[in-house]
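= Paired protein data =
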Amino acid sequence: MLKNRSAFTLVESLLVLAVTTAILGIGVQTFKVTRERQAEAQFFETLVSLFERAKMHTMLGRLVTEINIDDRKVVYKETYHQPQTIKMPSTLSVTKTSPKILIIKDEMIAPRRIVLTSSLGEEYAIKPQLGWGIIHIEKLKR
């Protein structure tokens, strides 16, 4: 004989709760990775604009500009201005770099290669060539 039920059983409620929790866990992880990728993309856009600013400052103002890239930050120094510090996203770390890029007046600097590794599984090569006003940022194959 069947009983007439008016509510879910404990097992059914726990099953719904477990499925909902699993779906939310996947969504939260995807959201976190997406935010970290956006932070990396924004950092690279800021870095490109910083090199553009350095090019204009040295070529038009005939002044010295220094860009120092270390493991957690980028420090940008112009003549007669306070240094500007840009924090690197926590997912990026410097693998290979020249410690300091010094741009003096209208001189060209030799092309350099700065390699950044992401904890998201990407590797980026930054190649500034300021005499030509070019900065390349490319994703390397891993």
Summary: Helices lie at 10-61. The beta strands are 64-69, 73-78, 84-87, 92-96, 100-104, 114-118, 123-129, 134-140.
